[in-house]
Amino acid sequence: MAASPAPPGLRIVPGYLDRAGQEALLTALRAVFARAPLYTPRLPKTGKPMSVRMTNCGPLGWVTDAAGYRYQAGHPETGESWPPMPQIVLAAWRALADYPDAPECCLVNYYGRAARMGLHQDRDERDFDAPVVSLSLGDTCLFRIGGSKRSDPSHTLHLASGDALVLGGKARLAFHGVDRILTGTSSLLPQGGRISLTLRRVTIPRAERQ
User: How far is it, in rounded angstroms, from Cα 201 to Cα 26?
Assistant: First the structure.
């Protein structure tokens, strides 16, 4: 069976960050983790723990627990405000997003060897005109992407350390997820695994609301 075509607006930038850039981003993330520790999120309704650990940086953070999916200004366990986004993250948005306003959330997920992410849409935001920009660090993952309906055909891509991904246009609401982590494919993270950083604009810019 032929592979389904990639949705318009999907863009992969292999090796967007070279090894030095990956190490610089990892150093910046360690400062983020010190202020906003990784924690285990839980699914709505069931309260079942997810296989990833997560945190955020920026004005808003995406969280999930038994009460539902939402954005909020503080860490759900410490109550502290999220730390600011590192400049290297903001620079990636400026270079890749082709969007005039700054991101408001940088969701950071850590995938251990057995972690996965089921197919989902990024649709808790009010501004779908802004793309979603993602950066990968560490082990390569098998990334699955389909169409705007869960039942649409999907295909898998390899996202390696330093790769960037942009979901814009019709791909902005494409279902996507992580099938598995290819252990041992990167030496960047001493403990192994993968870190993904997902940059999103959450609210509609003031000028567009008027």
Answer: 22
Distance of alpha carbon 185 from alpha carbon 142, whole angstroms: 12
Q: At what angle do helices 19-35 and 87-96 cross, to 10 degrees?
A: 120
Rounded to whole angstroms, the maximal C-alpha distance in the chain is 51
- Tens-digit pLDDT profile for residues 141-193: 999 999 889 998 999 999 999 999 999 999 999 999 999 999 999 999 999 99
The predicted-structure confidence for 40-52, as pLDDT tens digits, reads as follows 999 998 899 999 9
CA atoms within 13 A on the CB side of 121: 17
For 131-175, list the strands marked E by DSSP: 132-138, 141-145, 155-159, 164-167
Instruction: For the chain, give the number of residues.
Output: 210
Which of 136, 149, 132, 98 has its CA nearest to residue 202?
Answer: 132
* 75 secondary structure, DSSP code: -
φ, ψ of residue 197 to 5 degrees: the values are -115, 125
54 contacts 39 by C-beta, under 8 angstroms: yes
- Contacting residues for 14 by C-beta, under 8 A, at least 6 apart: 160, 162, 163
Strand, helix or coil for residue 77 = coil
Express each pLDDT in 96-149 by its tens digit: 999 999 999 999 999 999 999 999 999 999 989 999 999 999 999 999 999 889
Torsion angle in degrees (nearest 10) through CA of 15, 20, 25, 31: 160
